[in-house]
Amino acid sequence: MDERQLSNYNPVEIQTADQVKWFAVRTKSRCEKKVNKQLEDLGFTSYLPLETTYRIWSDRKKKVEVPLIPSVVFVKDPKVDKKPIYGIPGFYTILKLEGKIGEITPKEIEHLRLLTSDEVDCESCTPETFSRGEEVEIISGPFMGLWAKAIEDAGNYRVLIEFKSLNINYRVNVAKNKIRRIQTGV
User: Fold this and answer.
1) How far apart are CA 21 and CA 100, in angstroms?
2) Structure letter (DSSP) for residue 34
3) Any residues with CB less than 8 A from the CB of 20 and at least 6 apart, and which?
4) For residue 150, what are the contacts with CB-CB under 8 A and spacing of at least 6?
5) What's the CATH number for 18-124?
6) Phi/psi of residue 169, nearest 5 degrees
7) Contacts 24+ apart (CB under 8 A), 179-186
8) From 176's CA, which of 19, 40, 66, 146 has a CA 20 to 30 Å away?
9) How far apart are CA 128 and CA 150, in angstroms?
């Protein structure tokens, strides 16, 4: 490149095919697969992250693929002509952020692909269980840094805790990823 070309060179403007952003299309309930297929038939590059799960009915158990994010299909390149998308049966709207089409980075799409691949097993991650009366510390959120007592393990992801301050008890339902066990005797 000569000096004239270098002065006009802006690395931010140059995007490779891998760096082209995506946008999200909201579909009507349970229409994700149909909308994704029709987007591909129209020539759009689309992505519908699916996870494999088991559904249990009264008479059988079946392995099925369901959308990771219900009612959302991702489409590559927000600058494409979107008029054909509006005519797709099952299409609801294009997701916007502050009045503009919400852009999704290729890195975020890659993270979704990792989540739905066989390389990552999200099922094997079991949350901690907390015993009644166990001391815990809040590690994030509005109560960060406070210590409390676990009252009840309220399901897979939540714990009911109790704060004792000023002789008043507060019971709060907190996500397990926002608390940790206080180690005693360390």
Assistant:
1) 14
2) H
3) 76, 77, 106
4) 130, 131, 132, 133, 134, 135, 136, 159, 160, 161, 162
5) 3.30.70.940
6) -95, 130
7) 179/130, 179/136, 179/137, 179/138, 179/139, 179/148, 180/136, 180/137, 180/139, 181/128, 181/130, 181/134, 181/135, 181/136, 182/135, 182/136, 182/137, 182/147, 184/135
8) 66
9) 12
Q: Give CA separation, 138 vs 13, 167, 174, in Å.
A: 44, 20, 9
Q: Domain residues of the chain, as ranges?
A: 18-124, 135-181
Query: Cβ distance 114 to 59 under 8 Å?
Result: no
Cα(153)–Cα(66) distance, integer angstroms: 29
Task: For residue 88, give the 3-state DSSP assignment.
Answer: coil
Sign of torsion, CA 126 176 118 33? positive
Three-state secondary-structure class, residue 106: helix
* DSSP codes of every residue in 9-27: --TTT---GGG--EEEEEE
